[in-house]
Amino acid sequence: MEDSRIISLFFERSDNAIAELSKKYGKLFLHISGNVLDDKRDAEECVNEAYHETWKTIPPENPSSLLAYVGRIVRNISIDRFRHNCAEKRNGGGDICLDEIEELLSDNGGIDDGTPDDIITGVIDDYIASLDDTDRVIIVRRYWHLDSYDEIADITKLKKSAVYMRMSRIKSGLKTALAERGLIK
Description:
- By secondary structure, this protein is mainly alpha-helical.
- The chain is 74% helix and 0% strand.
- The protein contains nine helices and no strands.
- The model is unreliable at 88-92 (pLDDT under 50).
């Protein structure tokens, strides 16, 4: 079923909206959440919570990309659950990736909290769009899907060391792009 039709089901408050969303994207949402949490039951709970949150927000929201909209909700709920789970101990592989993101954005003073999200997002989107296809896959798989370097190497058919090297260059380029716009020092 097309995304626009699924969104229409949400606007109609149809019981089939969540079922169709789950049928189309459920496995991907579980993959995203599972990469953050490394626990199948927690991942399933987070995805279900994301479906509930989607039900509450559509309408009035009418996302241009249903996958990106709900994927972001899944990811954010999963990260919140991860942080909650890590209050007592660290677990899973997502913690390392989240540490990378924090390190990337906190170097040299980090991004000013007063900067509007759409400006930051625009710079990041422009930078990602400027990358070649392989580098784009690497950064999206690492920071959106929170895939391990081994998983990215399998997907891209590169050696793990090549993925590390490319990721290092990607992060350096992103820092430069953010610095050129005055978003980091």
